[in-house]
From TrEMBL:
<feature type="signal peptide">
    <location>
        <begin position="1"/>
        <end position="20"/>
    </location>
</feature>
<keyword id="KW-0732">Signal</keyword>
<protein>
    <recommendedName>
        <fullName>Lipocalin-like domain-containing protein</fullName>
    </recommendedName>
</protein>
């Protein structure tokens, strides 16, 4: 009986160790990869929108109605990091490149010529919500001067 019990315990031991698997662990993502995934999603392309409770404020005043239908899509793939924007009321370019500013991976810079371009934009992602914060300084140009101010843009993932 002891021999049967001994073999039974050995069998159980091997059965449990076999079930734990020997698959290698998923490689750890770098801070940059995690930040890219926050903006561009796991697939490498994510659209953020004012739909479902998003808002835009300028200097603390809600101006969401001036940006009806605003969307921004962040794309990150082998070709690089790009973005597209629509209905931005001339605040963002319709497309361009984006890059991280600094090593904390919580700030981006968008290429282009519109007022939000080439400015440091802080971002935070909380589940399916994205917040962008940035300042458009008052320049000499009267058209851009109307867009000058501190912006807070709250967006949700577009499904």
């Amino acid at each position: 009986m002891r021999t049967v019990l001994k073999y039974y315990l050995i069998f159980i031991f091997f059965a449990f160790t076999a079930c734990t698997g020997t698959d290698p662990e998923d490689p750890k993502k770098s801070a940059e990869e995690i930040a890219i995934e926050k903006l561009a999603g796991a697939s490498g392309s994510q659209t953020w929108s004012l739909d479902n409770g998003g808002s835009i404020s300028k200097d603390g005043i809600i101006v969401t109605n001036d940006f009806d239908g605003f969307e921004i899509r962040f794309i990150a793939n082998n070709a690089g990091k790009t973005y597209t924007a629509k209905n931005s009321n001339l605040l963002f370019d319709t497309n361009g490149n984006w890059a991280f500013s600094g090593g904390n991976y919580d700030k981006i810079i968008l290429s282009g010529i519109q007022p939000a371009s080439n400015k440091e934009i802080s971002f935070t992602v909380n589940q399916d919500k994205l917040r962008l914060e940035f300042v458009v300084p008052a320049p000499q140009n009267a058209r851009v001067n109307a867009l000058a101010g501190f912006y807070v843009i709250d967006l949700t993932i577009l499904n």
